[in-house]
Design a protein that fits this description.
Layout: E1 14-21, E2 27-31, E3 56-64
Antiparallel strand pairs: 1-2, 1-3
The structure holds zinc ion.
């Protein structure tokens, strides 16, 4: 399930996946890949923090809009 925070429809949000290491709790954000879902555990994932393998679990998936270029406060 992907939760998007509405803004402009013409702006395509970047989808990110957050993986949490179940061994040390380290969180890693990466670009969403097809097939990702919350609580998914990929066997090939390696924790960069503690080095444990098969401990990375998807904890969140969210869409993030890029910063608006037109919203600059300078005149
Ligand atoms: Zn870890």
């Amino acid at each position: 399930m992907v939760i998007l925070f509405g803004k402009k429809k013409e702006t395509v949000p970047a989808i990110y996946t957050v993986e949490t290491c179940t061994a040390c709790g380290d969180k890693v954000r990466r670009v969403f890949e097809e097939g990702d879902y919350v609580f998914l555990s990929k066997g090939e994932s390696l924790c960069k923090n503690c080095g444990s393998s098969s401990t990375m679990m998807v904890s969140a998936i969210y869409g993030e809009y890029p910063p608006e270029k037109n919203a600059a406060p300078s005149t």
